Amino acid sequence: MIYDVIIIGFGKAGKTLAASLAKQNKKIALIEKSEKMYGGTCINVGCIPTKFLREKAHQVANEEGGFDEKAEAYKRAIEDKNTLVTMLRGKNYDKLNQFENITIYHGEASFESENKVNVEMQDEKIVLEGNQIFINTGATPNTPPIEGIQGNAYVHTSETLLENRNLPKQLCIIGAGYIGLEIASMYHNFGSEVTVIQREEGFLPKEDKDIADSIKEIMTKKGICFELGVQNIRVEENEVVFTKNNTEYRKEADAILVATGRKPNTMGLNLDSIGVDMDARGAIVVDEYLHTSVPNIWAMGDVTGEAQYTYLSLDDYRIIEGALSVGESAVNKVPYTRQTRKNIPYSVFLDTPYARVGMNEKEAKERNIPIRVLKMPVAAIPKAQVLKRTEGMLKAIVHKDTDKILGVMLLCEESYEMINVVKMAMDYNADASQLKNQIFTHPTMTEALNDLFSM
Ligand SMILES: Cc1cc2nc3c(=O)[nH]c(=O)nc-3n(C[C@H](O)[C@H](O)[C@H](O)COP(=O)(O)OP(=O)(O)OC[C@H]3O[C@@H](n4cnc5c(N)ncnc54)[C@H](O)[C@@H]3O)c2cc1C
Ligand SMILES: NC(=O)c1ccc[n+]([C@@H]2O[C@H](COP(=O)([O-])OP(=O)(O)OC[C@H]3O[C@@H](n4cnc5c(N)ncnc54)[C@H](O)[C@@H]3O)[C@@H](O)[C@H]2O)c1
């Protein structure tokens, strides 16, 4: 079968591109290897299930009851999460399936040549031919060579842990990145006793020390235990064994989560044989318009090794849409590319959420930029008092000479909403004084930006 466009992977960029090109009357094949992944990582095993469970966990933390009651509430939360995910998966499938010119194939794709893709389906193997091919295969949990984790029923990835209906009394998490910390916060609220283990001594090493210390202090105060700078991690059945200062420790757990990063999903695509370049981590190398090294093949989302966020995958779709609309001969005139993309914000959905955009103090000093550092405690925000969520701090980095906002770090309730306002202000090159004097509704967390920029 011959298509105008083949899209491999039902991720955020892929599904959005499919709908858009279908409206332009292109004949499209979309290939997804798992029926449980229609809609991609975000809605099935990533952002949506974790943020749904985070809300449920928050409710459970405020309810009376011992472990057994909490375990029941957890089981119901997992069932509710599954119901939500099933509904979203169905909607995602139907949204594309309604187009007469989109065919969804359930099977694993691999390249036969530059414009031929094999699809290994349950009962048959077919070959599709396409003029333009877009790879959107995402990323998959990175399993480090830790002794004792392979084939161990106590050991989970985030995907299998969130399928487990039994609340672990003790949860041990290896890896203190986004997934490790978000799940630590969430399971602590559900009622698990949580320990987070990390090889590196430094906690959240990319963040400013005052921010990282404050996050750790908040989590420790709630009762989450951290073991940082540990060596020789191994797992023996339901125990995580490690050494610290030459002493061996054993941590028993009902569940062990390995959250040590996610690697680009390129294995099995047969990219080498058709000349698509990959880097040492197996990520597809792309230029600013998301071309791969083969002219008719593009890649987008996590598989390109870019920071792994759903909104960046969506933004990759925007870049491709822009490039396709002008055609290859004029592609270098497209104003919006990966190179011009700027001020990428992020949020870590901890119990006290953390959000950041732009440069922090450490980075500004490394680059010898003259700065003003503005800080204020969250307890000074009236809305934080209303919410009874007074822990945390706000911090801004402002250019001393130009008054431009270089970066903002928000460790407070609702920071994941507030950060988008700052991102927009930075995108429009606002001065710090403009946020200082901006009208914001009251009482809100966002109005604290008036005070932060008055510091
Ligand atoms: C637990 C967790 C929480 C997260 N929380 C957040 C969050 O709060 N906010 C945020 O922005 N991001 C979050 N992320 C990251 C976010 O989910 C990803 O960055 C995003 O979903 C990546 O989208 P994508 O378009 O690159 O591909 P994906 O959505 O990963 O889609 C790729 C698809 O390709 C399919 N596929 C792979 N290989 C093949 C093949 N050979 N043939 C056919 N199909 C194939 C896969 O099955 C998959 O469905 C989270 C991730 C995880 C794991
Ligand atoms: N809120 C969000 O936007 C959100 C939430 C969850 C996940 N994500 C995305 O998913 C990606 C994956 O998350 P993650 O937490 O798995 O990765 P990560 O890269 O954020 O953190 C990995 C952690 O594992 C540790 N580690 C690595 N190898 C190890 C080993 N062999 N032994 C012990 N520790 C080891 C690292 O030091 C680090 O602390 C993130 O990069 C993020 O982009 C985003």
Automatic annotation (TrEMBL):
Please list the residues that bind NAD(+): G175, A176, G177, Y178, I179, G180, L181, E182, G261
Q: Where is the active site?
A: H442 (proton acceptor)
- Listed InterPro entries: FAD/NAD-bd_sf (IPR036188), FAD/NAD-binding_dom (IPR023753), FAD/NAD-linked_Rdtase_dimer_sf (IPR016156), Pyr_nuc-diS_OxRdtase (IPR001100), Pyr_nucl-diS_OxRdtase_dimer (IPR004099), Pyr_OxRdtase_I_AS (IPR012999)
* Top-level lineage group: Bacteria
Could you list this entry's UniProt keywords, alphabetically sorted. Answer: Disulfide bond, FAD, Flavoprotein, NAD, NADP, Nucleotide-binding, Oxidoreductase, Pyruvate, Redox-active center
Co-factor binding comment = Binds 1 FAD per subunit.
User: Where do the FAD/NAD(P)-binding domain residues begin and end?
Assistant: 3-306
Tell me which SUPFAM superfamilies the record gives: FAD/NAD(P)-binding domain, FAD/NAD-linked reductases, dimerisation (C-terminal) domain
- Which positions bind FAD? K51, D302
Record-annotated Pyridine nucleotide-disulphide oxidoreductase dimerisation domain positions: 344-451
State the needed cofactors, names only.
FAD
One MF term in GO for this entry?
Answer: oxidoreductase activity, acting on a sulfur group of donors, NAD(P) as acceptor
Provide the disulphide bond pattern. Answer: C42-C47
Q: Which family does it belong to?
A: Belongs to the class-I pyridine nucleotide-disulfide oxidoreductase family.
Q: What is the name attached to this protein's record?
A: Pyruvate/2-oxoglutarate dehydrogenase complex, dihydrolipoamide dehydrogenase (E3) component
| Species | Anaerosporobacter mobilis DSM 15930
